[in-house]
Amino acid sequence: PIVIFELPDGTQRKVTAGSGTVLMQAAVSNGVDGIVAECGGNASCATCHVYVDERHGELVGPPNDVEDEMLDFTAAERRPTSRLSCQVQVSDALDGLVVHIPEEQV
Ligand code: FES
């Protein structure tokens, strides 16, 4: 599937994400700015924070419990559509997904 990362300045980066991987990996392996992912995907750093586009909130679903707690430690404000991109599993259903990268991660 193709996923779109929108940077704080409105620039969009379209990348191909592998099914069965996580969103954070797609960002990091394609050099998308603004996803720091300090902990490498363990839901313990909150530097891979994204805002799922309002239109896709239901598709992506809510965070799990560990992620939910970690989302209280994001550098940028937490919003109802906040997710840690390392906890979002990529599947074909997410083709065309848009996520917004926050202004700051650390
Ligand atoms: Fe650290 Fe996602 S990479 S919480």
From TrEMBL:
InterPro entries: 2Fe-2S_ferredoxin-like_sf, 2Fe-2S_ferredoxin-type, Adrenodoxin-like, Beta-grasp_dom_sf
Keywords: 2Fe-2S, Iron, Iron-sulfur, Metal-binding
Keyword Disulfide bond part of the UniProt annotation: no
CDD domains xref list: fer2
Cofactor(s) of this protein: [2Fe-2S] cluster
Stated family: Belongs to the adrenodoxin/putidaredoxin family.
Protein name: 2Fe-2S ferredoxin-type domain-containing protein
Organism the protein comes from: Streptomyces graminofaciens
